[in-house]
Specification:
This protein has 325 residues and is of the alpha+beta class. It has helices at residues 27-41, 58-66, 112-127, 161-166, 168-176, 210-235, 239-254, 260-275, 284-293, 296-303, 309-324; strands at 5-14, 48-52, 82-86, 91-95, 101-108, 134-135, 139-140, 152-159, 181-184, 197-202. The protein has two domains: 5-231, Glutamine synthetase/guanido kinase, catalytic domain (Creatine Kinase, Chain A, domain 2, 2-Layer Sandwich); 239-324, no CATH class.
């Protein structure tokens, strides 16, 4: 099942009772909220380090999006915003995004319950020292009404190349809202799919428990994975698809220039071949790591933020060649 699942994420939205929502916060009050969250985490057995958005360059902010540590919306503003990261980057807490607190846990593979258990643990640590805005009828109060209730978004990052090739993904995506779920691109809301990677997440947060939401997502994701695996049997029986996989590997091993779009498309094909045991010397884990390393801002953060697009394409090709040779 891990062949089609990259990672699992749980995100909890929380707000402090005594402060306006972030959209109405002054910079000084926003910084107060940042400090209060830090104080609440001080005695936690999970160690966090603080990163203030206005203290880091643009490339690092974007690289944090590429590594799924923060959301694209989070870096739109800088003053009065910070993120607390656990030492292993499994837990991130965005402070003053759309809500005062966006607590996120990301785990490799398909384990929603384990990810939720960790998120709940950190949530309890925070709630001991912070007064969360909560209503008996509506649950946790959030800036956007669509997050009222549990304030929880659970998601699974899926690799669905066979369903994408067959055109079934669009049909499936259109029907998911009837089941209380939605499917988005690699970086969540308002992003397009890249390399046949999709985020499947719950939509309903009001009038449903966290367990019910997670169970629903788990069941639908399991069905989608089963469909993907059946579709892979069909597409991989086609010699043309197998040829595309091997050609993709050949290009990745030898190319001197590689733009991001082409790299994602080719890596997706190779990942399909690896999971189908067509390319047994590679692993899906190594490919998943490469996908993160070759993102534009991640390259610039490591090799220089003055790189031109052409320079990035040269470096991207070099990183991939090194990874496959």
């Amino acid at each position: 099942m891990s062949e089609a699942v990259v990672s699992t994420r749980i995100r909890l939205a929380r707000n402090l009772r005594d402060y306006p929502f972030p959209i109405r916060l002054s910079v000084d009050k926003a910084r107060e909220v940042v400090d209060k969250v830090g104080e609440a985490l001080r005695d936690s057995e999970i160690k966090f380090h603080r990163i203030d958005l206005d203290a880091i360059p643009d490339t690092i902010r974007v690289a944090m999006i590429e590594r799924h540590l923060v959301s694209p919306d989070f870096i739109d503003a800088k003053e009065g915003r910070a993120v607390y990261l656990s030492d292993d980057n499994t837990v991130s807490i965005m402070v003053n995004e759309e809500d005062h607190i966006r607590l996120q846990v990301i785990k490799d593979g398909f384990d929603l319950n384990e990810a939720y258990a960790l998120a709940d643990k950190v949530d309890n640590i925070l709630s001991k020292k912070l007064n969360f805005a909560f209503h008996k009828q509506f649950g946790y109060l959030t800036q956007c009404p669509t997050n009222l209730g549990t304030g929880m978004r659970a998601s699974v990052m899926l690799h669905l190349p066979a369903l994408d090739m067959s055109g079934a993904v669009n049909r499936i995506g259109a029907n998911l809202s009837k089941l209380g779920l939605t499917m988005r691109g690699l970086y969540g809301e308002s992003t397009k799919p890249s390399g046949a990677f999709f985020q499947l997440s719950n939509q309903v947060t009001l009038g449903i428990s966290e367990k019910a939401a997670i169970d629903n997502l788990q069941n639908i994701a399991t069905q989608l994975i089963a469909q993907e695996m059946r579709a892979r049997e069909n597409v991989l029986s086609d010699i043309e698809v197998e040829d595309k996989i091997h050609r993709a590997l050949g290009i990745l091993k030898t190319a001197r220039l590689m733009d991001h779009s082409e790299a994602m498309r080719l890596l997706s094909l190779v990942r399909l071949g690896v999971s189908a045991k067509k390319l047994e010397t590679l692993s899906t884990d190594s490919i998943d790591k490469l996908i993160v390393e070759i993102q534009p801002a991640s390259i610039m953060t490591k090799y220089g933020d003055d790189m031109s697009p052409r320079d990035r394409d040269i470096k991207r090709a070099e990183i991939i060649r090194t990874g496959f040779n």
